[in-house]
Each structure stands twice: as structure tokens, then as C-alpha cells.
Amino acid sequence: MGIFDKIFGRKPGKAGNKVEKRHLLNMRVGDIVSYDLIDYTVVGLIKYEDSGYTWTAYQLEGDGERVWLGVEQDDALEAGIYKPVKLDLGDKPPRKITYRDKVFYLDEAGSATIVAVEGQAGAVAGQRISYWEYEDESEDYALSVEMWGGDLEVSFGYYIHPRELSIMAGSHN
């Protein structure tokens, strides 16, 4: 027990004094994520599940903008930065989409259940969505399409290496 613990009345071994080390799979609302010289605050998160496979989308806010950080543990830990875009796909996404002079091909599709929501995420736990994931030929860029109710939402993104991110806990949770 240190001098400050004695002064402020903290007890040794008290669970409230430890902050869980953060990584891409356990971030919480209030945490800080640094990427490309910008500090973002995690303002929301959505956890998805499809047939036992899970992934998380974190809503980040920083430098006057909001982006999504998609994270999944596949064969390796994968991450991507996504921004919503306006793209008319009709009633159902096609197998091939051209956007920003790139051709994106359907990589996977399915339906998922929202299993957890925190903060400003715009979703409800238990909600079902349909999704379509596209990649360009280089596999560096992606389009993510989700159907929420009857509305298609499209996001354009690019893959990043998880080591490009620094994470700092913003709370004791």
C-alpha cells in the first residue's frame, strides 16, 4: 500500500483499482483509439453473431468525424476503418459493385443477430440484420452493406493492421 492509498483510503487488492488492459476485442465506450495521428473516442459498439461466428463494430468519434472500426478474429485478427456512403443498390445488393473507380466483388453474405449494444450505436440487442461484404481485387478496400429493417446502409472501408492502432482505457471497466 502506497502513501496515496493511505491518504485516499484505498484498500489493497480492491478490484475497482485495476483497469483491464484494452485490445481490439474488449474495447469499451469511453476508450481512446489512436490511428493515423487522430485520437478517437469509442462512442458506441455493436456485437454481431452469425452461426457462432462473432465480430464487433466500434463507432469512433474524433477530429470532427465519425467512423466505424470493424474487428473480427478470423484466422488472424482483422480490422478495417469504414465510413458511411450514399450508394443506390436498389432492393438487393448485386454480386458486383463499382464505386470510386474500383470494382468490388461479393465475398460473403448472411444474416446476423445483434447480441450486444453499448453507447451511441443505433441498434437494439436481439435485432436481426442481413449483410453483404465486398472486396476489391487488391483486397485492400471493402464495401459493407447491411439491411436494417427495409433500408440498405453502405459503408466504404479499407483494411488496416491492428498494430497501427493504440488503445487506452477510458474507464475502469
Layout: helices, strands, pairs:
Elements: H1 3-8, E1 32-35, E2 38-50, E3 53-62, E4 65-73, E5 77-85, E6 96-99, E7 102-119, E8 128-136, E9 141-148, E10 151-160, E11 166-168
Antiparallel strand pairs: 1-2, 1-11, 2-3, 2-7, 3-4, 4-5, 5-10, 6-7, 7-8, 8-9, 9-10
Domain DUF4178: 28-162
Protein name: DUF4178 domain-containing protein
Describe the structure.
With 173 residues, the chain is mainly beta. The chain has one domain. The protein has one helix spanning 3-8; strands spanning 32-35, 38-50, 53-62, 65-73, 77-85, 96-99, 102-119, 128-136, 141-148, 151-160, 166-168. The mean pLDDT is 90. InterPro entries: DUF4178. Residues 28-162 form the DUF4178 domain.
Main attributes of the structure:
56% strand; mainly beta; 173 residues; single chain; 8-stranded antiparallel β-barrel
Class from secondary-structure proportions: mainly beta
Strand content: over 45%
Low-confidence stretches: none
Helix content: under 10%
Report the sheet with the most strands, covering strand number, pairing sense and barrel closure: 8 strands, antiparallel, barrel
Rg value: 19 Å
Principal-axis shape equals: globular
First-to-last CA distance = 22 Å
SSE ordering: HEEEEEEEEEEE
Q: How many individual β-strands?
A: 11
Number of helices, counting only DSSP H or I runs of 4 residues or more? 1
Number of domains: 1
Mean pLDDT: 90
Q: Strands across the major sheet, in which order?
A: 2-3-4-5-10-9-8-7
Short note summarizing the structure:
With 173 residues, the protein is mainly β. It contains one helix and eleven strands.
